Amino acid sequence: MTLQRWLFVIVACLLLLLTVGFIYFRDIQDSQWTAIKAAKKQAIEAAGLTEVDKVYHHTWDKETWVIEGINKENENVFVWLTEEKLSEVIKASEGISEQNLKNTFKGKQPNAVVKRIQPGLLDDQRVWEIYYSDGENPARYHYDFYRFDNGAFIDSYKLPSRTEP
Which of 18, 21, 39, 155 is most buried by a 10 A CB count? Predict the structure, then answer.
């Protein structure tokens, strides 16, 4: 085979691999994207949102979607959607902000490495969940829960550490 034919075969194989990879990725992600779209739509209808800023998916006691956005009165709000398709709209001003909670947490645990902060439900109570490692070796990971309205500590769960062989 000539050099041109080899190049054609190589390029065709690469395009085929990229196409198959894209289709596979899209197929895997499609259910998640559909769920996010449905949660956004339900929050827009329930709270009259004009803008959606963030969508959080939280699973602890039960599956919960929390949508952060701006309503028609130009107020920042959080919309909690549960498995029962019930919705609860809370103004952001009625709770502690994510940044204030993070600053308070870092003040109490300066060595902690925060992986994620997100709103959710714990025992049907609106909470902020902080997922972090303690900064030790081997790293131990924790979930801390704080009340959404005032940032009061509720509970902490420590995950077992994994040691490398």
Answer: 39
